[in-house]
Amino acid sequence: MAARTRGAGSAPPRAGWPEPEPETVAGQALTEVILETFRLHGRLQEAAQTLAAAGELTAAHWQVIGGVLDEPRSVAEIARRMGMARQGVQRIADLLVDRGLATYQPNPAHRRAKLLAPTEAGFWAVRRISLVQHPWATHVGEQIGARDLRTALKTMQRLTAALEAENHPPR
C-alpha cells in the first residue's frame, strides 16, 4: 500500500506533532512585529487604493509607476525595488503603457529588457495623487510624530537588511 500524502487540508494526529523550539524574547518581538506588519500592510493598501483613485490609478499601478519616477528602470529592477513579483510588474507595466501613462524605452545595458518610463500623463496622474496624499500623510504623520516615524523607519530598514542578508529561507 502506497504512503498517503497529506495535502493542505489534512494534518497528522496532534499527538505526533513536533514541538517548536522555545522562542526568545527577541523572537517573540519579531513575531509580534510580523503580525502587526500584516495588519499595517492591509490598512496602508486600503489607504493607497483610495489615494490612487485621485490619479485614476490603482494602488498597484501607483506602486509600479512610482518605481520609475526618478529614472527609467527594467521590469526586473522595479520588481526588486518595490518588493513585487516580476510577472505582476510586467502585467501592470503593459497596462500603464496601453493607457499612455508610461512608455518602454531601449535599454543600453540589455537589448531585450526594455526600460519603463512615465509619460507626461503618468507624471500628471502621480501629481494628482500627491495633491491628496501629502495632506493625508501630514495628518497621519503628525499623530505619530516625525521622531517616532524616523525611528520606525530605521528599524524597518535594519530588519529588511537582516532579512536580505539571510542566505537561506526560513525552515
What structural class is derived from the secondary structure elements? mainly alpha
Number of alpha- plus pi-helical segments: 6
The helix/strand order is HHEHHEEHH
| Mean model confidence by pLDDT | 93
Instruction: Characterize the largest beta sheet: strand count, sense, and whether it forms a barrel.
Output: 3 strands, antiparallel
* Cα distance spanning the termini: 30 Å
> Given this structure, which CATH class of one domain is correct?
Mainly Alpha
Let me know the number of strands.
3
Q: Which geometry do the CA atoms define? A: globular
Which band does the percent of strand residues land in? 5-15%
Second CATH tier, the architecture of one domain: Orthogonal Bundle
Q: What is the fold-level CATH name, i.e. the topology of one domain?
A: Arc Repressor Mutant, subunit A
Rg over CA atoms, rounded to whole Å, is: 21 Å
**CATH fourth-tier homologous superfamily of one domain:** Winged helix-like DNA-binding domain superfamily/Winged helix DNA-binding domain
What's the arrangement of secondary structure elements?
Blueprint: H1 25-52, H2 59-66, E1 73-74, H3 75-82, H4 86-98, E2 102-105, E3 115-118, H5 120-144, H6 146-165
Antiparallel strand pairs: 1-3, 2-3
Task: Kindly describe this structure.
- The chain has helices at residues 25-52, 59-66, 75-82, 86-98, 120-144, 146-165; strands at 73-74, 102-105, 115-118.
- The longest helix is centred in the first third of the chain and has 28 residues, at 25-52.
- It has a domain at 56-131: Winged helix-like DNA-binding domain superfamily/Winged helix DNA-binding domain (Arc Repressor Mutant, subunit A, Orthogonal Bundle), CATH 1.10.10.10.
- Helix content is 60%, strand content 6%.
